[in-house]
Specification:
11 helices; five-stranded parallel beta sheet; alpha/beta; Methyltransferase, Cobalt-precorrin-4 Transmethylase, Domain 2; 10 strands; five-stranded mixed beta sheet; Cobalt-precorrin-4 Transmethylase, domain 1
């Protein structure tokens, strides 16, 4: 054991998201030195280790057995065996299994050390060209359309660049929902198959996004990072106006609610009356 790794330590190791040469020197050293590697899919990690000539004992720790896997890892650590935790690609516990293991190991009073490296969200942001000071990493949206649109509605007024992961078979539906909820004027960056042979990065308006996906059948293949520009001041204002009107409508008739909302927000009463009718009709 060299000075890089030590006993009773869980190393959370980021692995490449596509191009194997993106692995860090420190990650390779840790993977060589640990006694046990807990992998999301032992076949995938086995191929990575074989590429770099690393022989190691592997156990499977994935979403469906993570709690039981955590107990095995704790037992190994208490027996003095350093362990590395990896997923199929990228950083464990970031839209991937691993958080339960890390929480359990720390709760057991044992040491967790991150070994940073590849991350699809950060890689995509670096190539997006959005000059905003803040971003919100959401990860995967709900798979069902209604739940997905509800989730997006909660993000509508946020002044942050929004970062999502999406599976290829859902990307067309997700793009349609993004345009429905956010409107067509925001920009979206598609980052597909990052660091791989068929990497593709494309920027367009949300109004153009569905057509871009549909233009090539290959665009419904491969993993995506979707980056959407932040809400404008006008969008944030519209959301707040609707919120005020909804509160008033819960207690008052349409006409009174519209009048008070106009006084509170400074918006035109006729426009608020029309919006109130629409909201009342949808309730």
């Amino acid at each position: 054991m060299n000075t890089e790794t030590g006993k009773n330590i869980l190393y959370v190791v980021a692995t490449p998201i596509g191009n194997l040469q993106d692995i860090t020197l420190r990650a390779l050293e840790v993977l060589k030195q640990v006694d046990l590697i807990a992998a999301e899919d032992t076949r995938v990690t086995g191929n990575l280790l074989k590429h770099f000539g690393i022989a190691a004992k592997l156990i499977s720790v994935r979403e469906h057995n993570e709690q039981a896997g955590a107990l095995k890892i704790i037992d190994a650590l208490r027996a003095g065996h350093p362990v590395a935790l990896v997923t199929d690609a990228g950083t464990p516990a970031v839209s991937d299994p691993g958080a339960r293991v890390v929480a359990a190991v720390r709760a057991a009073g044992l040491t967790v050390i991150p070994i940073p490296g590849a991350n699809a969200a950060v890689a995509a942001l670096s190539a997006a060209g959005f000059n905003t000071p803040h971003f919100l990493f959401y990860g995967f949206l709900p798979a069902k359309g209604g739940e997905r649109r509800t989730a997006l509605q909660s993000l509508l007024a946020l002044p942050y660049t929004l970062v999502f992961y999406e599976a290829p078979h859902r990307v067309a539906d997700t793009v349609a929902d993004l345009a429905t909820v956010f409107g067509g004027e925001r920009e979206i960056v598609f980052a597909r198959e990052l660091t791989k042979t068929f990497e593709e990065i494309h920027t367009c308006l949300l109004s153009e996004a569905a057509a871009w996906v549909a233009a090539d059948a290959n665009r419904e293949r491969g993993e995506y990072v979707l980056i959407v520009s932040a809400a404008t001041e006008q969008e944030k204002s519209a959301v707040e106006i609707q919120r005020v009107l909804e509160v008033l409508l819960s207690e008052l008739p349409v006409k009174q609610a519209a009048k008070l909302a106009a006084q509170i927000t400074g918006e035109k009463k006729n426009q608020l009356y029309d919006l109130a009718l629409k909201l009342r009709g949808n309730s």
